Structure prediction request, 382 residues.
Amino acid sequence: MARAIVALLIAFAAAAAAQSAFVRETVLHGRRALTLENDRMIVSTLPGGGFIGEVRFKSNDPKKNLNVMRVPHYQTIDPHTYDSAKHGSQYGTGMQRRLMSGYMGHFVAFPHFAAASDAELAQDYGQHGEAIAVEWTIDSTVGTDDAATLKYSAMLPKTRYRMERTISLPADETVAYVQESVENLEAFGRPVQWTQHVTFGPPFVALQKNFVDAPIATVVRRGQGATGDPRVFSGNASSWLLDGSRRYVYFTMYNLDYSVLAGYIFETAPNRWVLDWQENQRMQEKPWDNQVVARGICIGDSIVGGLRNAVERGRQLETPVFSWIDARERRSQSYAFFLADIPIGFKGVADLRIDNDRITIVERETGATTALKAGGLRALAR
Prediction:
């Protein structure tokens, strides 16, 4: 029996090695993960809460192979396993308890963004909605010569939605493509907030060394006491309205000490708002403990904390701050994220273009361009 198991494992490893792109079950920061991998890039997601917790180049160069996503200084768990009696002393018992128990990298805030009310918290419905608080089910995994594809989904029993997400990583690209959908299971329409909370952490995030670029139409608000360039990580948050005249919007991030540019590209209409959330060792309560350094680019249909607040405000700068999903409606959106190799001393991104199945990155000040193969972006470029 033991020999048979060993033979099976060897055969599985050989089959995976023969594929140009594949999906495999792994462990990330002590938790079960599903990893998409090709010869150049690794993407890992956690079924517990649906977090995308690892995005990195495959390289022997320490200036290039870092995980750009936030990995906490403490051990996380799958949020659906959180129990106040067992875990409260480690992760807290307040509104953020489930989020903070499992918080890694990129998550989707749905069906509301930021704070919940006291009444909602009494129903165990907390910070950033229900999608991060449940277990996501693996529906299918496919690895071929062309691409690795993972499809997974989540039922949200308290709010009565179903979410699906498909991530595809082509064999010959450093671009991952995401199709995400939500289905209203109720027989009535209702307001929602749908925001991607993409959180980066050390060493990629560091004071005065980490920069973000995006097609900003208006800087709506700067953090108290904030001065200088809003592109740079200073520990002070800001919020932006993105340029609605573009066919697609984007943001990119880099660190002066590393040769990695990370970026996301989105459909414009549902993603006009950005909160550039920054934390630099200020939060004292568990499990923050004055140790968290993180930068979260929260991009979607709102920057207003709490769904009721968003509905009462309605619009800001003539732009809605929530959206609507009708009875039994299924809504979908597509986006992509990528890594690009940049030189040390890179000046930042003046513009990002999609044309001829390529992402073209235009450097600030110099006008130099970097092109990435991106065959799956035709829908965003229309």
